[in-house]
Write a structure and sequence with these properties.
Strand content: 5-15%
Number of strands: 7
Radius of gyration: 37 Å
Largest sheet: 5 strands, antiparallel
Distance between the termini: 108 Å
Length: about 375
């Protein structure tokens, strides 16, 4: 037998099998043939696997949207990934905003209040951009990649074996139908032999599929660990952003009080500890937990000609020679001076003396 004859016979056999399965499937749909049902445990495993696949795809796609809101950038990254090439590095939105602020501040003049503030804000925005880039890289490696590997690897294998199980079931039911229709003893014996073979192949394929499906529980455990990694990456990112903005707020707090806000609104002080006795016993607390300092809180101290001891809550860098630099937790002497801005006091440490912002202090008894 030459190769061509073998291929023709193989194609004919495959066509016969396909036709037999098609007839069996059609008759089942029309209610004209019996259908072998899978056991309840296997059906539950199949349902769990399908549910896992659907929700994994949804979570994966929405995480990609969260990390990269630009759809064009996501498409570009997908193309580079499929081509197994590294996507070119691009500046992200916080970094771009930061660069604009720095350029603007440089042009306005670093020596001006507005120019200096823009530069400080720009530098902070660029730090946030770097943190954002690290979040994307960490999340892609520890969270998105394992989810994608399940969809493109494990679940594809499960789908392949599930399809084979469906074909083996159709073969089995077709053999059962032929046995019922067999009249002659010889034909019946042949049909019984065929039924035993197809039943054995179906049972074997059902066991293979079951073993693969039982691995879904291990997949859930793995994805749980990946989810913990994702949450940790987000926690690190938001903690970094909070610290960057807190430092920026302190830096901007060194500007004269008339630069702090518009429309004579009360400025917001850095967040003190819950037990802090911030200067001014009638300080107001906003719904966000930030303490709002009011000039009226200093009436007692300003009307008093004496001095008080105060603990420094935060580090403070003097903006000019008229101010006093501070270190967190040190104790200094403070007193009021007639005509001084209500947001400031005079501070004294040994032979050093200068203005200090009241929001950085805690009066001591």
């Amino acid at each position: 037998m030459n190769i061509m004859d073998f291929n023709v016979k193989k194609l004919a056999a495959d066509a016969g099998t396909f036709l037999s399965r098609a007839v069996q499937f059609t008759e089942e749909k029309l209610g004209q043939a019996e259908k072998t049902e899978l056991d309840a445990h296997l059906e539950n495993l199949l349902s769990k696997a399908e549910c896992t696949k659907i929700w994994t795809e949804k979570i994966m796609k929405q995480t990609e949207v969260l990390l990269q809101p630009n759809p064009n950038a996501r498409i570009e990254e997908f193309v580079y990934e499929k081509l197994d090439r590294k996507a070119p590095s691009r500046i992200n939105n916080p970094e771009l905003l930061g660069q604009y602020m720095i350029d603007a501040g440089t042009e306005f003049g670093p020596g001006t209040a507005y120019g200096n503030a823009l530069i400080k804000c720009g530098e902070t925005q660029k730090r946030i951009g770097t943190a954002d880039r690290e979040l994307i890289q960490t999340s892609a490696l520890n969270f998105l990649t394992p989810l994608r590997n399940f969809i493109e690897g494990d679940y594809k294998t499960i789908s392949k074996e599930r399809k084979l199980l469906q074909n083996k079931r159709l073969d089995l039911d077709a053999a059962k139908t032929r046995l019922k229709k067999a009249k002659a003893a010889e034909t019946r014996a042949s049909s019984e032999q065929e039924l035993r073979i197809t039943q054995s192949e179906f049972d074997r394929q059902a066991e293979i599929t079951r073993l693969l499906l039982e691995g879904i529980s291990s997949t859930h455990a793995h994805h749980l660990r990946c989810l913990n990694d994702f949450v940790e990456a987000q926690m690190t990112y938001y903690a970094q952003c909070y610290q960057y903005m807190l430092d920026l707020q302190k830096q901007l707090g060194s500007f004269p009080s008339n630069y702090h806000c518009n429309n004579n609104q009360t400025s917001v002080a850095p967040m003190p500890s819950a037990s802090s006795n911030v200067i001014g016993s009638s300080a107001l607390t906003s719904t966000s937990g930030l303490v709002i300092a009011s000039p009226s809180n200093l009436v007692d101290l300003k009307e008093c000609s004496g001095s008080r001891k105060a603990r420094v809550l935060y580090d403070y860098d003097a903006a000019n020679s008229s101010e006093l630099s501070l270190l967190a937790d040190e104790v200094i002497t403070v007193f009021s001076v007639v005509g001084m801005d209500s947001d400031w006091l005079m501070g004294e440490r040994g032979n050093q003396k200068g203005r200090v912002p009241i929001t950085y202090l805690e009066l001591l008894n």
